[in-house]
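Q: Could you fold this chain for me?
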Amino acid sequence: MFLDSCSSGKAAYKQGDYYEAVLAAVQRLRGKPDHKKSREVLKLSYQLAVDYLETDAKNQIAANANFKYKTAVENYEKINHLYEEIRTSPGALRVIPKPVAKYDELTEVKAKAAEETYEAGIQALLKNTREDAKQAYYYFNDANTFSPGYREAIEMIEQAKFNATLKVVVQPSLINYRDWNFEPIVFGYNANMFVKFYTPQQAEELKLEKVDQYIKVIVNGYQEGRPIITSKTESFSDSVKTGEKIVKGVKTPIHTKVSATLTTYTKKITGRGSINLIITDAGNRAEIKNQDIIADETWSDSWGTYKGDERALSDGAKRLCQKKEPYPERTYIENRTRKELDNRLSNELRSFYSRY
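A: Sure. Below is the predicted structure, expressed as structure tokens.
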């Protein structure tokens, strides 16, 4: 880290990024207060960084640039950040004993930045489109950040968010044989803060002036296939010790060749569930999306039987032969299928509504 901060500080200085050069040098001096090259970089860069940031802030204001006070806030905050970083680094403080602070200037431009961004929010909101309302939401948030509680910023944040939000009414699904209900997945969607789902009752109670879309999830059904059992047979042989004999006064083991055949059975059961996702434009009732979502889940397990001498089998084969024919829990495959449908529906909603 020290080596990186040293080299990055020099590189930033050479590229004219004096702010980053100062930060890198200060970081290096925290760990090694007498580091010569970092002291040099800090000495060369600091005043240049402060001068550049302050001049840029003043130039933005004088040129009447868009969001000039917001830019000034960012610059003065950087100057103050350098001030705090140097003050908390003894090695850096020895190089720059009197770092510059701009807290009074920052307070002044923050007040003007709050007014600037608040007015921008009002103008964006007046355009009466979802995209402009989104921008207004961020402007009002900026205003409230610059000056907490500024005018009606908090109320306007809520208003802008409401105007920017795509309002989707979730139509109840038909009762299905499995009693599956995917509404919790729909109402649990939270990937886009500007999309909100309502029940028909909520839409009526809130007297929504405009509904943008309707969404419905229809359960097509679930099917579970019959078990399919396959088998394979393998032959095993081994030489096992069955006793000992004396040969020329030395005990010698007696080995006997043993063999066995192993039949491995594998049982598979497959389940398939299907739902239909329909999203409709509330204005012209045209279908925006109509997609079948399908999930396949397979359960499988194995067991075995053998003929011949068990001693010829491996430990794994012996354990397989100790098992009986397996059966899954009654709703295991169905539950796994339903869970996968939940995941796929959630992904489809996330993908579709990311564009809003």
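A (continued): The beta strands are 166-170, 195-198, 213-224, 228-247, 250-281, 287-308.
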